Structure formats: C-alpha cells, structure tokens
C-alpha cells in the first residue's frame, strides 16, 4: 500500500516533467510590433534546444542570460549556448546584421528553428522579450515542462521613440534595491529603456555622497509621516501622523549594482538631484545651504516648500558641484536630471546675498536666479560630458538649447521647448501621472494623490501632437511618473504601475497605434505574465 502511494506520487511528479505546453492562442504582443505575419505550425522549445550566437556585440551575454532567466523556471535548467557557431535547425539563432537598426529586430519562427536578426544586442534583447509573450502563459505555471510550443510567425519590429521611461520617487517613500530591481524587470518586460530615479526631495535624501555624509546621516530620515490627506490645507493640529521614523538610502555600491543590473537589461538610469527647490532634506543636513542658515527638520508633509537652496552663496554651487561630481562618476547616463520644478522665490526675495547676486548678474526678477543657477550647473555638467535635463519650469527662466525639457504641466512646455529647438520628454500629468486614481469611482481604491487617469487615457497620449515634422524629431519620447506620497509600500507601487505601464510602453514603442479595443485583449494576455512573475496589478481597469 505504502509502495503504491509512493509510485502514484512519483507518477504525478513525472507528469509535470513530461508536460508539453501547447500554443495558447493567436500571437499577442505588447507593445505592438511593427508587423506580425502568422505562419503554419509550431516550434518545440525544450531544455535541449541550443542557443546559437553569431554576433560581435559584447553585450550578447546579457541577451542569452535574459533568455535563460526566462526559461529556467520553465525547464528547471539552462539552455546550452554556442558562440560563434553556424546557424542551425532545432536552435534559437541570434544573428547580427547591419541592415537592422541597433534597437530593431526580426524574429522568424518556423517548425525547424527560431531566427532572431538584429542590429546588435539591444534589438536581440527586445526579441527575447517578444519570445516571452509568444510562449504559452501556462508554461510558467506549476511544475516543469518538457517542451513548450512557439507559434510559427514572422515579426519585424523596432521602437519608434528612443526614450521610453519611467520615474520612481524614492524620496517620499523609500524602496529597497531588490524592489528597484523588480521595477527594472518590469521595464525590461515592456521594452522600456530609461529608469529615472528621483533620489532627493524635501522628505528624504537617498543617495550616499562621500563628500557630504550628513546628507544621508540626517537627510535620509524623517521622524514621522503625514497619514491621509491634510484636512485643512494648513498642516495644522487636525493632521494625523504615523509617528514612525521613515528612512533609507542607497550606498554607492548599491547604486553601482542597480546601474549594472539596468545596463544588462538595456536600461539607462537617469539620476535626479533636485535643485534649487524640493531641497529641505539637504538643508536639514547642511543649514548653510539655505538663505537664512536656520536648522530645519526633514519635511514630514507633502506639497511645495519655500525653503530652497540659496543662490546668493558660492558655497551652494561648490556643494551641488561636489554632489554632481560623485553622481556623474556613478551614473554613465549622458543625461543628468537636476529637477528644477516648483521652486518658490520668496526666500530669495528676502535674502541679501541673493539680491546681491541679482545686481551682480544684472537680473531684474528673482525668478531669473533659477535660470542663472540652471545655466551654471549645465555648464558644469557639460564640462563632464553630460547634458542637463530638467522639469519644464527650467524654461521659465531661460535655458540653453542643449538642455532637455521634461514636460509635466501638460504637453505645453514640451511643445514650446520643441518649437524653440530643445529636446523634450513628454510626461504630462494628464496622461502620465500614475499616482492618480485609475478609476473615476475611487471607493475601494487606495488613497491616491488625486485626479483620475484610467488606462484608456494613458493609451490615448499622442506625444507629438501640434508639432511639425522637424519639431517632432526633438521629442525623444515619453515617461510615466510614479510619485509616492501616498504609496507606502511596493505592493501598492506595482498596483499603481500596472497595467497602465503596458499602455505607456505601447505609446512609446508604437505611438501610431490608437485602437484601444484591439489593444485591451493584448494587454489582458500580458497580465498572465504579470501573474507568472507575481506582480500586483489593478485587474478592474481591464474590464471592457
Ligand atoms: C508635482 S511633477 C511634483 C511632485 C509631486 C507631484 C504629485 C513635479 C515635477 N513635481 O513633487 O510629487 O506633483 O503628483
């Protein structure tokens, strides 16, 4: 009896090993490829399938690692990789060709073989992301598979926009390195290629700076956090606080680890150091950075603060340059984000040093001090071979043609910037603010910043509207922003991101596609892969 039980149990386990998982429906990929031509038959992928690499791109191991990472949970082992080797039947063949752009690829599946042709490793990486979605979702279920079927198909693909980004605010709430990596995995799955890391704000400084240790010793911790909404708009005694210190920062080793993790997924990390506003955590760490030199606490509530960096003192510039020197050493990104948003000028108006700076520079309005500061920092970044990117307020006080403008107050700023020849990233609140509610009916939804941004509206964004063809070329791409005032943990961050990230990914990859009814079933299928990876998402927003 006992023996029989063991045999039965073994039988069940072996059934798992012997599973051949069939194709689960027509080809369905998000973001939509340029062209998909279905064909007859299937290719059987198994642990004995070889991976052949014919490419001189040194980053091809990132691609084969990504393929193995995808297939390891399915087969319980990795595929053997041959490089260089002749193209083979029965194999997944990666072939470099100069007739395809560096980020484009073609993927041809026949019953005999899989062939990926690409301009380099980046395109090949996107082909692997497409392969994930060609696999039957059940392959990622419980138990190992013996083989999975891939549908015969010919896909030609390349992104239309070169910048497909997402910003994560880790200042209002801190997210661990492991969580940040899970976000990077998500970006990779959606073929997105920029991670904008909002590292400093009034409520926390999250990046270790060797020259200025107080930034993390003092600036990375706030003693308490506002709970819920401020009922009176005054942050008075009617507000409730959690009374628990909230802190966290990344060491420089951790930052290097994240940057490398991203690079292996063809994602550039753009760091943001807020200047001259959103600065209270920095001023709390070093009081000589403010106009008055007063000792402040790291801010515990949200909104805009008028305590900003003093533009009158040269020591402020020595400070920010010292910080940026370490930042450029850590981040290979060409673009360095210096914030620039929501900077009140009240303190500068009261400050003798700022008034003196205005006189010396021949400035007539305090706002121009921001332009002075931005230009000075831009010059510094350029001397390090980098380019400044900032929120669209940088346009209001004069900015050079080489600065990049991130348009958040609608697309207006971006349109203005593109018309005057600046490069632009479109991230308007109307379509890209993932801290807004996903439905009009907010009952049962977690508390959000406000506003309503349903999936369909994200999908409707036309980033190049009202621009002629020359101006359109200045639009680098689009970005989703996740501000985290009301996002205290990673589960909620995923919930706010997904599935809206799928819609924004398609806006960046194939902005011409605007048939929402055709998009929705494709996105629904993508959520089966969210399930397979254990991501949390807003299921209700997928209802027809
Ligand atoms: C505006 S967008 C901000 C952030 C807030 C966000 C809330 C931008 C450049 N600044 O500081 O977190 O609104 O939606």
UniProtKB/TrEMBL annotation:
Keywords: Glycosidase, Hydrolase
Source domain of life: Bacteria
Ranges where the Beta-hexosaminidase bacterial type N-terminal domain occurs: 28-157
Active-site annotation: 342 (proton donor)
GO cellular component, one term: membrane
Substrates-to-products reaction catalysed: Hydrolysis of terminal non-reducing N-acetyl-D-hexosamine residues in N-acetyl-beta-D-hexosaminides
Residues covered by the Glycoside hydrolase family 20 catalytic domain: 163-511
Pfam (any one): Glyco_hydro_20b
Signal peptide: none
EC number: 3.2.1.52
Entry's family note: Belongs to the glycosyl hydrolase 20 family.
Molecular function per GO: beta-N-acetylhexosaminidase activity
Top-level EC class as recorded in UniProt: hydrolase
GO BP annotations, alphabetical order: carbohydrate metabolic process; glycosaminoglycan metabolic process
Name the UniProt record assigns to this protein: beta-N-acetylhexosaminidase
């Amino acid at each position: 009896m006992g023996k029989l039980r063991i045999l039965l149990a073994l039988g069940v386990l072996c059934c798992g090993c012997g599973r051949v998982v069939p194709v689960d429906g027509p080809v369905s990929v998000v973001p939509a490829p340029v062209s998909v031509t279905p064909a007859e038959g299937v290719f059987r992928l198994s642990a004995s399938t070889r991976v052949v690499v014919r490419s001189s791109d040194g980053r091809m191991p990132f691609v084969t690692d990504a393929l193995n990472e995808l297939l390891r949970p399915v087969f319980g082992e990795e595929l053997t990789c041959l490089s260089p080797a002749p193209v083979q039947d029965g194999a997944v063949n990666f072939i470099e060709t100069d007739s395809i752009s560096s980020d484009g690829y073609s993927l041809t599946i026949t019953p005999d073989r899989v062939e990926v042709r690409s301009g380099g490793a980046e395109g090949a990486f996107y082909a692997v992301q497409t392969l994930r979605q060609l696999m039957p979702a059940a392959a990622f279920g419980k138990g190992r598979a013996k083989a999975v079927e891939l549908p015969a198909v010919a896909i030609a693909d390349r992104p239309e926009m070169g910048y497909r980004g997402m910003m994560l605010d880790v200042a209002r709430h801190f997210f661990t390195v492991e969580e940040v990596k899970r976000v990077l995995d998500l970006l990779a799955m959606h073929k997105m290629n920029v991670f904008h890391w909002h590292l400093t704000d009034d409520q926390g400084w999250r990046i270790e700076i060797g020259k200025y240790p107080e930034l993390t010793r003092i600036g990375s911790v706030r003693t308490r956090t506002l709970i819920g909404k401020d009922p009176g708009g005054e942050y008075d005694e009617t507000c409730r606080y959690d009374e628990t210190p909230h802190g966290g920062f990344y060491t420089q080793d951790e930052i290097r680890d994240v940057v490398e993790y991203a690079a292996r997924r063809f994602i550039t990390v753009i760091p943001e150091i807020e200047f001259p506003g959103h600065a209270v955590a920095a001023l709390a760490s070093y009081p000589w950075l403010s106009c008055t030199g007063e000792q402040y606490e790291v801010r515990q509530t949200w909104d805009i603060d008028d305590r900003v960096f003093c533009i009158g003192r040269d020591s402020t510039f020595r400070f920010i340059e010292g910080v940026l020197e370490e930042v450029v050493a850590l981040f290979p990104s060409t673009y360095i984000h210096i914030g620039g948003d929501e900077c009140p000028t009240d303190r500068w108006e009261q400050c003798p040093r700022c008034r003196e700076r205005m006189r010396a520079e021949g400035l007539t309005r305090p706002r121009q001090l921001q332009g002075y500061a931005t230009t000075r920092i831009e010059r510094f970044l350029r001397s390090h071979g980098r380019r400044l990117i900032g929120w669209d307020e940088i346009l209001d006080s004069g900015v050079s043609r080489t600065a990049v403008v991130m348009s958040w107050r609608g697309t207006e700023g971006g349109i203005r910037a593109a018309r005057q020849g600046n490069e632009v990233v479109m991230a308007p609140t109307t379509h890209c603010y993932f801290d807004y509610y996903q439905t009009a009916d907010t009952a049962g939804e977690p508390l959000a910043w406000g506003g309503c941004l349903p999936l369909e509206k994200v999908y409707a964004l036309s980033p190049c509207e009202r621009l002629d063809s020359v101006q359109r070329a200045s639009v680098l791409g689009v970005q989703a922003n996740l501000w985290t005032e009301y996002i205290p943990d990673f589960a909620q961050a995923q919930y706010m991101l997904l599935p809206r990230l799928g819609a924004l990914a398609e806006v960046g990859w194939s902005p011409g596609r605007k048939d929402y009814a055709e998009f929705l079933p494709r996105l629904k299928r993508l959520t089966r892969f969210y399930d397979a990876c254990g991501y949390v998402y807003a299921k209700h927003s997928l209802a027809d």
